[in-house]
Each structure stands twice: as C-alpha cells, then as structure tokens.
Amino acid sequence: MKPPPTTGSSGSSTGSKKDASHPIESGVKKFYARKSKSSKVFQATDASHPTGSGVRKSYARKSKSSKLLLAAGGDSPQDEKKWQGLFDSARDVVTDSETVGARLARLLKALREERSKKEAEENSMSDAGECHGFDVKGLMAQIYQDLHNVATAQLSRAASGEAPTGRAFYGELSDTEVFLRDVSAGVTSAIASALNSLHHHESSQSSETRDVEETMARCLLPDDAAHERYGKLATHHGWKFLSKLAHSAAFCNAVCTLDEELWQILSASIDENAVSLMVFVDCCGLEWSTELIRLNSLFPPTLDFTKYAPLKPRKPSPHKWVVTEKASDVHRPTFEGQKQINIPNNIYRAASFTYAPRPPFWPPTLPYPSDPTIVHNHCTKPCINCSSRTPCPCTFATSSSILHPLVELRSYGGRGVGVRALQPIPAGAILGEYVGEVFPAGYDGDAVYALDFSLPGRASEEVIASISARRYGNWTRFMNHSCAAATRFKSVMLGGRYRCVVVAVREIGVFEEVTIDYGDGYWRERRCECGVEGCVEEFKRGEVGREEPEEWNLSTIGYED
Ligand SMILES: C[S@@+](CC[C@H](N)C(=O)[O-])C[C@H]1O[C@@H](n2cnc3c(N)ncnc32)[C@H](O)[C@@H]1O
C-alpha cells in the first residue's frame, strides 16, 4: 500500500522484483480517476441505444408512415417505400406552426427528459436512500451512533462504580412496567411499551434522551401501530435483536413517529443491515440482555431470557468481526490462517532492525537503530492537534483532530475484507492511523499490508521504515484500493510521534466503502478490481492515460503542512 509520502523502492536494498510486488512503490505515478466518464459514456450510449432515441425515432416515423400508408390505401412493400418517401417529404411540412420533424424532435426530447427524470428519481431512492427528503441513511447512522453512545455510557458508569451490572443496571421496574406486567393483554404490546420506557430510565440523566421522550410524547401513531412494528421486527429478527436496537432512541422514536411509507423504507434498511447491526452491538460491548431478563416474565415460558446474562458491560472490541451477508458467515479477519489482531499503536522491536543496514534516508540526528516514529526534541512539522513542534502530551485516541468514525469491516467478495462507513465522513477528516509492526525500510516479509513510511515533510521516496499490518494492525489495514479513492495516507506529527494517518479527500457517505489509493505500482503484477472508470487496469491495457496527482497537503484542510 502506498501513502503519498511513500515509495516502493524502499531504499537501495530493494531489488526490482521485490519492488514490483511490494505494496509501496516509489516513483510510481499515482493515478487518480477523473470525474466519472462512465456516466458520460452511459448517457452517450443511452442516446443511441437500441431502446433509446434512435429506435424511438424510427418507430415514430414508422407509425406516421403507416398512417399515411393507410390513408393512401397501399400496404405492399413497394407501397411502403413509396409512401415512406412521401412521409419523409412531409417531415418538412409545417403543421400547426411547426414541421413534422420539429414535432418529432420535441416529442423525443420530452420522452428522453421524462425517462432521465424517472431514472434520477429511482437512483436517488436507492442510492441516496432518500424519499420525499427522508434521509434513511442518516437515520441509520443515528441508530449506530446511539448504540455506540449507550455502550460508551454504560462502560463509563460501570468504570466509575455507578452502574451495578445486570438487573439493577437500569433501576427497578417502574410502576408502569409493573402494571403492564400484571395486566398485559399481549406479550407484544407489553414488551413494546416496556422497550419504549427503556429511555425513561435514562431521561433523568441526559437532555438528549429527554428530547427523545418529548418527541415520543408527541407520537404520531396510536400505540397499537407502534407495537405492531416492534412485534413484526421481533418476529422477523428475534427478541434479542429488538432488545439491542431498542437501546437506540432514534430507533424507538422512528417506530413511533414515522408514517407507513417511511417506516417501510427504514425497516427495509434495518433488514438489509441486520447482520451489521448485530455485529456492531457486539463490537461496542453494549449490554443489551438486562432488558430482556428484566422482562422475562412477560414472555411465554419457552422464551427464557435468564439464560443470557446478566452480562457485564464489556470493553468494546471494535472491528473484531467481518460483517457478511448471512449472520452464520460472520468471521474474524485472518491472513494466511492466522487471526489478525487489533492494536492501538505501532509496535517497535529493536531486534527487527539489528541486522538491517541503516537506511540511506535515516535522519542523521536519529540514533540507529531506534523507533523511527518517536520525535526527538524538535520536529520541523507541528503537532496537528496542538501545533507544538516539540514532543507534547497529545494522544491520538483523545485528540479532537481525529474523527475516529464509526466504520465496520465487511466482506467485499473478490476484494476480500473492506471497510464500510457507518456515519457520514466530511472531506478533510483524519480517520485514523495506519499502525502495525515497524520494520526496516525495504522489509520484504509482507507484500500485502506493508506501508512505506517517511517522515512528515520529506519526499515520499525517503522511506525510513516499513509498517507491516499483516498480523497486528487496526481497521485501516483493511481499506481496499480504488482508483478513485476516498482517502489518502499522510505523514504527520501528533503527540510526539510521527504517524501515517488516513485523510478523507472527499465526503464519504453512510454505507459507502472507505477506499484508499495504493499507488499504481501495487497493481503491476496484480489485478485491480475496483471497477471505476479510468482504473489502472485500463491504463495497463493502454486504454487511458494517467495523471500525476496534484501535490496534496494538510493545509487544504486547515493544517500547516
Ligand atoms: C491491504 S489489503 C486490504 C484488505 C484485504 N481486502 C483483506 O481482505 O485483508 C490489500 C489486498 O486486498 C485486496 N484488494 C484490495 N483492493 C483491491 C482491488 N481494488 N482489487 C482487487 N483486490 C483488492 C488484494 O488482495 C490486496 O492485495
């Protein structure tokens, strides 16, 4: 893989064969796809497509010509020819202040406009997930965010000793719940109300949930309708799933307030993302079982939820699982049969450097061997969080300059595991740090995940180390390549450490794949399947040219570079 400040040649020790297979290639022109030509091509094709204007035109002529034929009483092929000629000349005849040709052209234009409007509507319904301004993806993102927030709050309450685990976690049963338990007419409605009241327990603690309560008080739907929705979801996905989802105020609010059309859109998206939601809750460490256990007596004896827990709020283990289409296929990420382990920071071992020659670009002031990511005394580049040029106490985890977006690992078929955004990511946001085991420049033990590392402000060819994420790393190692990538690597300084961070070069939508550009060199002996127009594969086949990317720096997003 290749960050902007990277090279593939990785110093003089790297031979050409190794170069070609090494993920980080030096001196390789990087290719950034231009604005989607495919859409232009598509439009062009459309206009001349057999089902498009050309054929319609001839149909239009034909039917007019048939009318003329009928009027003239002739129907033999010869007649047709004769009358076709007549028709052709009639095209220039002015009728009602326009020629037949102009009329045809106008009708055609209207037809085309109508068709493209319909297509645009269909696309915006499915792509943007919007209907009448309803942003279903935005709402889904809010549900993920709520679940994450509740899990984080549980954990901090548990850490401060405030939150006993299990039954007492949400407090004692409220009067309403006792009432419901005693007089419940049906399991579904009782559970639905109880799930709604989940947020009552927390409303005294946060104004956010109080707002939600107020919204729920203004509920547009009669209770029965909301209960039916809860019931259907529980029937379809199980009570466990519903109990998990009910920790999101946005979800409960939507159940109660959305009209049927919008609810159908939301529940379709929930169905589509059911596996993702389940994995997400698990990765967040959300304690979801208490509610079900607390309400156990409301369920038929066949459903005994006491067996589930009470679970303790767990430390989150984000990006632990790979989301797949079927829940039964969810798995841990592995490489060459070994589990891939998540780590928060680079791992440096002096022993890894012992036998490697000092790289030519190793800074003269830096002892060799030593951890090349540590800032000694002074850095030519300021910390991107506090602007200090000397080692500062900023940490990556708590720095406000880092977005730490909600993302998930997901199976992308032939391209393997990839990363999917679970929230909108603005252009310029720093998403995370590429971490792994630090090896000397030119390390040839990892042809898939190794990233050449050069210091901030230095040329990308000046590689001083290789970060191998094959075994130890974080979610950033799973970003697949795209020739029209959404992010780039960038070397920066933060908290007394040199780091290679991932920066969004454009806005990334909810559920969009988070891709990065590995550099053309990575694909010299591999096949890129990003499928975007202007892909490096087209270049290899000689179908397109390539462009040198513009020099890009953090100042474009407000940082000094
Ligand atoms: C750094 S890893 C990315 C994560 C990887 N997909 C996985 O499952 O671990 C790079 C590897 O992912 C696959 N890959 C990434 N982007 C690809 C693309 N555009 N086309 C084909 N394969 C791709 C290739 O196997 C590549 O060697």
Give your account of this protein's structure.
Residues 1-61 are annotated as: Disordered. Pfam families: SET (PF00856). This is SET domain-containing protein. Residues 39-51 have a biased composition (Polar residues). By secondary structure, this protein is an alpha+beta fold. It has a domain at 135-306. The chain contains 17 helices and 18 strands. The chain has helices at 16-21, 37-48, 53-72, 77-90, 100-126, 136-159, 175-183, 187-203, 207-217, 223-237, 239-245, 249-257, 260-272, 274-284, 289-294, 350-353, 536-540; strands at 94-95, 98-99, 130-131, 134-135, 322-323, 334-335, 338-339, 341-342, 347-348, 407-411, 417-421, 430-433, 437-440, 451-453, 465-468, 472-473, 487-494, 497-504. α6 packs parallel to α14 (274-284). It binds S-adenosylmethionine. S-adenosylmethionine binds at residues 1, 415-418, 448-449, 477-478, 480-481, 528-530.
